[in-house]
Amino acid sequence: MGNLHLVTGHAGTAHVSAADHGSLHAAIFGEGAYVLNRGSKFATTIISNNSIRVADGDIIFQGRHIRLNEGTFVNMAIENGTQGYFRNDLIVVRYTKDSVSGVEDANLVVIKGTASSGNATDPAYTSGDIINDHVLVADMPLY
């Protein structure tokens, strides 16, 4: 066995990992977070005061390719507000990695903001470096 990892070569056993793909994607696209020019590009539609529909698309999030299959969507529930108050919520793509199994996942999540009688501010979200710091949770704000 050589002293390099020949990722796209035949090794006789399964040897290509998510980290291999993530590293390649980060080298090509950069280490940031990007909605790609595919499908509906995660376009939103207001269904009601409490429901936002997020349509299909592809994302590169710090090297990880995340996809909502073409022609599909996810309805996001928004909690009721309080009359006379203002609140900003965020819809984010949340990357998670199980520290024991190493299993990675991604989901659309609503982060509820704090109600205010004055100017509303965006709620805090989890940022972190998936590639270099191997964080277990990172959010990519979409809306």
Question: In short, what is this structure?
Answer:
The chain is mainly β and 143 residues long. It has one helix spanning 18-29, and strands at 33-35, 44-48, 51-61, 64-77, 90-97, 104-111, 137-141. The protein is built from one helix and seven strands; from the N terminus they run αβββββββ.
Would you write up a description of this structure?
The chain is mainly beta and about 140 residues long. Helix content is about 10%, strand content about 40%. The protein is built from 1 helix and 7 strands; from the N terminus they run H-E-E-E-E-E-E-E. The strands form 2 sheets. Strands 1, 2, 3 and 4 form a 4-stranded antiparallel β-sheet that branches. The longest helix is centred in the first third of the chain and has 12 residues, at about 20-30. The chain is elongated and about 70 Å long.
The major beta sheet can be summarized as:
4 strands, antiparallel
- Summing up helix and strand content along with how strands pair, one would put the structural category as mainly beta
Ends apart, CA distance between termini: 48 Å
Helical stretch tally: 1
Give the ordered list of helices and strands: HEEEEEEE
* Percent of residues in beta strands: 35-45%
Helix content: under 10%
Computed over alpha carbons, the radius of gyration is 18 Å
Give the rounded overall mean pLDDT. Answer: 94
- Overall body shape: elongated
Work out the number of β strands: 7
| Uncertain segments | none
